[in-house]
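look at this:
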Amino acid sequence: MEEVLSMCISPFGTIDIEAEQICDILGLTVNGRKIDSAGLSVASRGFDWSGRTTYWESTHMMEARDDARLFMRKLSAAFPGSVLVQPAWGGNARVRCRQIKFLMDSDEVATLGIRYDKARLAEMLAAEEVSWTEYEDVFTYGMVFSRRDRDGDDVTWNRYICSRGAAALNLDYDVVHHRRYRVRMEFPTADAEAQSITRTILAILDDHFCRGLRSVNLATGATLIDELPDEEDERSYSKGLREACLQKPNRYLFVGVRDTPGADPVFFGARPY
């Protein structure tokens, strides 16, 4: 067998597709009858393979303090009347919810409700618990903002390269502690208002974050790669984080190691331009 195409066609962790959905996508018929899978995937597996629903997410590196709050403040200001709602997980995929005025450094997840039913929102906030489906359905348009790393995670990979032998070389470098957040939305593909909302969010993302990293040999200071590839869309970093990193010539967002058979490992740091 030979692979002819490799690309991401669904969010990470989505691995199932039903026969009806395959028929719909490929235009196959059963006994001459066209199969329409609209609504089937959402109801049964939580993912719509038909293309009628757009799923969008991106991941961004942010400073540990205030960065997330400032970013969410920009978004809230762009959508007057929007609300920030925070869920807390309980048992059996149920959540308790509360409305918050702003994001704190300790907050790990929140939804910016851009269009919503006020009565349903009030009922949900007053309830002891609701299902996750009920929580998401309250918002006609909502953006989920969640922290991808946890306290203690080695997001800079400094501990890892030290365990690989970097510590013994007494390399002169520094790494900026940061957090990684994910922005996620889904909406009907043909919905013009949803497309407009998404364009506004993208404009704010472009204003708050930047891209472009070079890979530097930690031992020699030589540039290894002028433009570090970003295959997983995780190399976006805030402008504040960029400024913090560029305050010192030997400071990096994260570090790593390159292994070549028969040669010593090369320890590198990723640094903004």
